[in-house]
Design brief:
Rossmann fold, 11 helices, 10 strands, about 40% helix
Length: about 290
């Protein structure tokens, strides 16, 4: 059975942009005979709150959406993400990086790394890997580190398949066109997949869960479009299926910036308390 999902993070109250994004997912499922799942992506334990998770259920039901139980909560499954990371470690596809943000920026400045089409400077990996003894010494000293995905090791591991990585895009909005899109993981560089005290990242947990839950269609905002280029690589490395993607527009404020959960005047709760009906939200607001 074809499946899609709506996957909010409980780091604040949902706003109008979330309402429209949820409608994209649930309407697609209804029109295509798909099952639409709800997933709680709460790996950011410094910002996620149980009260915000409860509000997600309340707001989505008020908007008229429904989903099957049980709802997958990512923080309940850290051991699964650790296992996925262990596979990548065993294959030599990730490495520990002890660089602070300042050191990382200085390294890229010195190597003249420029901003990629993904809107960021992609870290190309270390010029010289740490020796085993130095790495062990820094671990013993308690230094913080992250696990980074090595693009050079990934290229060696996949061989000719690396350059053939691609995904099917069915969305059409600003900076997104439909068609078979060549994946460009080099636009994001050696991304972080986990940290010393955090066993996963968005990239690792979302691709793992899409595979586990049998997600065939990923529908999400265009702000995540470039992440897909890394997700396709992870799927190939792990032997996972690549879903069909559809990236949609975002709801923008007067300053043309994406709405934030900190904009309390546009939260679903505030609209409900003001007497606004769900149909009025969907009538008066659009994605751009």
């Amino acid at each position: 059975m074809r499946k899609t999902r709506f996957a909010p993070s409980p780091t604040g109250l949902l706003h109008i942009g979330h309402a429209l994004a949820a409608r994209e997912v649930f309407s697609f499922a209804e029109s295509r005979g798909c099952e639409a799942l709800l997933r709680i992506e709460d790996i950011d334990q410094t910002r996620c709150r149980p009260g915000y998770e409860a509000a997600i259920y309340e707001d989505l039901r008020w908007l008229g959406f429904d989903w099957p139980d049980p709802v997958r909560r990512q923080s309940d499954h850290y051991t699964e993400y650790t296992s996925a990371l262990a596979f990548l470690q065993k294959q030599g596809l990730v490495y520990r990086s002890f660089l602070t943000r300042r050191e990382l920026n200085a390294d890229m400045e010195g190597r003249n790394v420029v901003i990629s089409p993904a809107g960021e400077r992609p870290y190309p990996g270390p010029l010289q890997p740490l020796s085993h003894d130095e790495e062990e010494a820094r671990i013993a000293a308690g230094e913080a580190f992250s696990w980074r995905l090595s693009l050079s090791a990934s290229r060696d591991y996949l061989g000719h398949r690396f350059d053939a990585l691609a995904f099917e895009e069915t969305g059409e909005c600003e900076d997104v066109s439909p068609g078979l899109i060549k994946a460009r993981p080099d636009w994001l560089g050696d991304v972080i997949l986990a940290r010393k005290d955090t066993p996963t990242s968005y990239h690792l947990s979302v691709t793992h869960d899409d595979q586990l839950q049998g997600i065939s269609h990923v529908i999400r905002g265009r702000d995540l479009y470039h992440s897909t280029h890394i997700h396709v690589l992870l799927q190939a490395l792990m032997g996972w299926e690549t879903p069909i993607y559809r990236h949609h527009g975002l709801i923008l404020g007067a300053d043309k910036r994406k709405f934030s959960k900190s904009d309390a005047s546009k939260t679903i709760r505030s609209q409900r308390e003001a007497g606004v009906r769900p149909e009025e939200i969907f009538r008066d607001w659009t994605l751009a």
